[in-house]
Amino acid sequence: MAEAAPFAERLLAWWRVHGRHDLPWQHPRTPYRVWVSEIMLQQTQVATVIPYFERFMARFPDLLSLANTTIDDVLGAWQGLGYYARARNLQATAERCMTDHDGRLPDSAEALAALPGIGASTANAIISQAHDRPAVVVDGNVKRLLSRHAAIEGWPGRSAVMRELWAQAETRLPTAHGADYTQAVMDLGATVCSRRNPRCNECPVRHDCQARRQKRVGELPTPRPKRDIGQRRLYMLVHFDRRGRVLLERRPPAGIWGGLWCFPESESRQALAERFRLSEVQLKALPAVSHLLTHLKLEIIPLTADGQRPGDTGTQDLALGVECAEHLDWFAPLQWARLGIPKPVLDILESTRA
DNA sequence: AATGCGGGGTC
DNA sequence: GACCCAGCATT
């Protein structure tokens, strides 16, 4: 009996018939477009990314336009996509390409991985797709596909498991068709070897899938261990001036919502009142907003001075000697959408308009 | 080697 | 509500 075709050949044959060939970053498949798409796709699903990618390309069609714009413009284009550090890294990388790489993205995985926001897997994903060279990519799809096909146990967040996945991926790499193979493993993971209800009977590598043989497809990959998450209460001052502009503060570059504009906030209601020369009794709470992060549950209590609303006149103007520096400023409604504002803050902002 | 980052999809 | 997603940077 003839030996089965190599893993990669079966995937490529499957992909030519069943794979995705119409993703926006595939046409044209330039290094710049591939790079931007890979950054957007980090921890973010394809369907979510597509409209952002189209808008981003219309606004920043090339490396130079991205390097020459402001961070606020990039954050504005990123608003709603999450993981805003990616937007800052994107622009930092564009600038580095101008200064250190002759105005282009480097064409080696090592040089790419030295740039902000690009790790080993993303570097290889860019190389394989932009230059059609085979390179190991281990993303969520590949982790799932390989942990099943080779029956690899353990949560991929553990380094030993990740090493094994990387080694498996390496041995399966073809010697040609690098771009199509990368797309093929991702497509197979996304559409056939899906997390729930995998369609094993349509899989081109089902005949030597170890998880399937052991009837353990449903148990692999091993899920992330559960853990308790903490809870934190946060007060935010929602205040408008007579012209309907809202007071926002730019957050420090590191940490949650780094570099984004938020209401002035504090964990202490009293500290917030003191900072803006308000008495605590003046502060009226709006309905709380709950925001869930991986490791933390935030309860955000929006506070307004005397129930003030935009357009209100005659209320005290919070003169409070707010010295609007670069990190503290007033913004008109038309400016909001171009700023980069975290989702819960935007929700509060919009609820005050309604 | 483990943890923080964040919004959305999906069941 | 639980769990995951085209991971990386930081500690």
TrEMBL record:
Keywords recorded for this protein, A-Z: 4Fe-4S, DNA damage, DNA repair, Glycosidase, Hydrolase, Iron, Iron-sulfur, Metal-binding
Protein origin, superkingdom: Bacteria
Cofactor mode of binding and number, as noted: Binds 1 [4Fe-4S] cluster.
InterPro entries: A/G_AdeGlyc_MutY, DNA_glycosylase, Endonuclease3_FeS-loop_motif, Endouclease-III_FeS-bd_BS, HhH-GPD_domain, HhH_base_excis_C, HhH_motif, MIG/MutY
Alphabetized PROSITE patterns for the sequence: ENDONUCLEASE_III_1
EC number(s) from the headed UniProt entry: 3.2.2.31
One Pfam family, short name: HhH-GPD
GO biological process: base-excision repair; mismatch repair
Sequence similarity: Belongs to the Nth/MutY family.
Function recorded in the entry: Adenine glycosylase active on G-A mispairs. MutY also corrects error-prone DNA synthesis past GO lesions which are due to the oxidatively damaged form of guanine: 7,8-dihydro-8-oxoguanine (8-oxo-dGTP).
NCBIfam families for this protein: mutY (TIGR01084)
Stated name of the protein: Adenine DNA glycosylase
Species name: Marinihelvus fidelis
Lineage, opening ranks: Bacteria, Pseudomonadati, Pseudomonadota, Gammaproteobacteria, Chromatiales
